[in-house]
Write a structure and sequence with these properties.
two-stranded antiparallel sheet, 171 residues
């Protein structure tokens, strides 16, 4: 599938209409519960937090989003990206990258964390995330905690060591 540019949508729980919320939750269940065969409570109580921002790319109808993620506020002041999902028939078009870029732009100069499925560590490194701890298993799937620090102002470059290669690269 070729890369498709769509305008990202963003809303808090209070701003979501019922049909859109249904579509977002259905996409998450389709990917995480059905496709990945994870038996867990998908509704974790954080979706309705007033600071949580749901971001998605619309499909052919409001109840058929093609990509989704949410941005949470963590107690220590950083943002957390989670529940990154792309509909099976929409994968390979760069939709997750487009949504991640929009989320990181929205997060701005705050640090950001996520728990990447282990096979996606290299993917998230492309966005400036680095592994911050050992692999762990959640719901039967290996994950790696990752963090992205705010970008330095122009002319204040620094280098970070890539967790997968051990080589230093600009951040």
């Amino acid at each position: 599938m070729t890369r498709t540019e769509r305008s990202p949508c963003a809303a808090t729980f209070e701003e979501l209409d019922a049909l859109t919320l249904y579509g977002l939750l259905r996409l998450r269940v389709d990917v995480f519960v059905v496709e990945q065969a994870c038996r867990y409570a998908e509704l974790d109580g954080r979706d309705s937090d007033p600071a949580t921002v749901h971001m998605w790319l619309e499909g052919d109808a409001p109840d058929r989003p093609v990509a989704y993620l949410r941005v949470l506020d963590e107690p220590e002041g950083c943002a957390r990206i989670g529940h990154v999902a792309v509909a099976r028939d929409a994968r390979g078009a760069g939709l997750a990258a487009q949504l991640l870029e929009a989320a990181l732009s929205r997060i701005g100069d705050r640090p950001c964390v996520l728990d990447a499925q282990s096979h996606l560590v290299g993917y998230y490194e492309r966005f400036g995330f680095i592994a911050t701890g050992p692999e762990f298993v959640e719901d039967g799937i290996p994950h790696v905690p990752m963090r992205r620090e705010p970008r330095p102002a122009a002319g204040q470059g620094r280098a970070a060591r890539s967790s997968s290669t051990g080589l230093r690269r600009p951040v």
